[in-house]
Amino acid sequence: MEREIEVLGGSTLESVVYTLLAAKSRGEHVYCIFNGHKLHSDSVSMDSAYMEVCGYTKAEHDHKMNEWQENYKKQEEIAKQRAKENIPSWIKKGQELIFPERYEEWEKCVQARANDLYHGLELDSALEIMQALENGASMEEASKILDNQGHSGMSASLVRNILFSFSSRGPEFWEATAYGEISPENKKILEDKKQENMKLAQINVSKTDDTKKHM
Fold first, then answer.
1. CA distances from 90 to 40, 81, 83, 102 (A)
2. Quick check: 88 and 96 in contact, CB under 8 A?
3. Which terminus of the chain, N or C, has fewer Cβ atoms within 10 Å?
4. Confidence category of residue 58, pLDDT binned at 50, 70, 90
5. CA–CA dist 194, 196 (Å, integer)
6. pLDDT at 37 over 90
7. Residue 199 banded pLDDT, cuts 50, 70, 90
């Protein structure tokens, strides 16, 4: 009688085939379900399994995977080079939108984000929203920009945190785009940031007034 064997999470099709073939060599009649396909030890071969599950042979599968990996490496190199070239531009654009007291931290942020997972794409997104807020966009409008940027949960979180850290309206934006109830701890952090932004705004208004007086 044929019995089912369990496929462990993370198993590859190749390892499943070897398991079935090993069972066949022991005279066992077993089957398993892999990605919705039923594979039998009595009739399985490496190519038949790949044809059943993937639609092409093992050799064709390996060739496609190698092509994909090569293309991925090329795209990664292009993204890394783009990020490296864009660092001065990101720094300049950001400094035009934030308080001077945050210039140094902004440069550190740009360098870190340019060399991280998304190669600075979240900087482009953050700068787009920061510019919109500086131009007077409402929080609803800014939130829609974030929604339309096509983020994953992780990249959206990065953009929100960049806005929180550097934009004069960052805490308000973070609140407007929060999911669920904001914890008391986060409310305190948001309020502290708002107070910090108010102080920096007053300092920079005073600096501007002093400059005008001496012109």
1. 57, 14, 9, 14
2. no
3. N
4. very high
5. 5
6. yes
7. very high
Beta strand extents in the chain (DSSP E only): 3-4, 30-34, 37-40
pLDDT, tens digit, 9 for 90 and up, residues 149-192? 999 889 999 999 999 999 999 999 999 999 889 999 999 999 99
Tell me how far apart the alpha carbons of residues 171 and 142 are, in angstroms, rounded to a whole number: 13
* Residue 152, Cβ density class (10 Å: 0-12 exposed, 13-18 middle, ≥19 buried): exposed
Distance between CA 21 and CA 15 in Å, rounded?
10
Measured distance CA(60)–CA(141) in Å, rounded? 48
- In 8-156, at which residue ranges do the beta strands (DSSP E only) sit? 30-34, 37-40
Give the angle subtended at the CA of 90 by the CAs of 133 and 97, to the nearest 5°: 30
Distance CA 75, CA 161 (A): 27
Structure tokens at 149: 């940027």
Q: What is the distance between the alpha carbons of residues 169 and 165, in angstroms, rounded to a whole number?
A: 10
Sheet architecture: strand order including 30-34: 3-4, 30-34, 37-40
Could you tell me whether strands 3-4 and 30-34 are parallel, antiparallel, or unpaired per DSSP bridges?
Answer: parallel
- Contact (CB, 8 A) for 55 and 87: no
